[in-house]
Design goal:
Elements (H helix, E strand, L loop, with lengths): L1 H32 L3 H22 L3 H19 L32 H18 L11 H26 L17
Helix pairs in contact: 2-4, 3-4, 3-5
Length: 184
Amino acid sequence: MEGLGDDAATAVAPIAKWKSDFSRTFQYYLDRSTPHLIERWIGTLAIAAIYVLRVYLVQGFYIVSYGLGIYILNLLIGFLSPKVDPELEVLDGASLPTKGSDEFKPFIRRLPEFKFWYSITKAFCMAFLMSFFSVFDVPVFWPILLCYWIALFVLTMKRQIMHMIKYKYVPFSMGKQVRAWNLF
């Protein structure tokens, strides 16, 4: 009886080691890709193009694409939002300046760029894998889903832009700002 437990433990040990090695190697390459912003996004665009081509050629999986679009919209809102929302949270030391006399505080995203990229890439990979299983190919009239997603996108972005204007923040930085009189 004691031998049965030992056999199970020795059978699981190589699987756990392989999983640990794979996880460590994957994290190593993920960490190495962090400074390569342009290359990461080009890779994600390539994955997205492959997924779009797959959906176009199969002429299906529109509900998966709709879910992917909603998820990406949710990620985009997190990417464009400040970490501390002045409307929702109690103002502490990390709040956004609302008046010209307030001290400058840098914009800190709720969802950092790397996590935004990684989540979008995983979402496209999952949607691509789902497109190989017919259970996810629910028959729907895709123009209705597209119109609904566009309306949702416009309304959500309008609300987000109004929030940006109200609290005077810009979630994008275009590098170091140089004054015109410092150029000469």
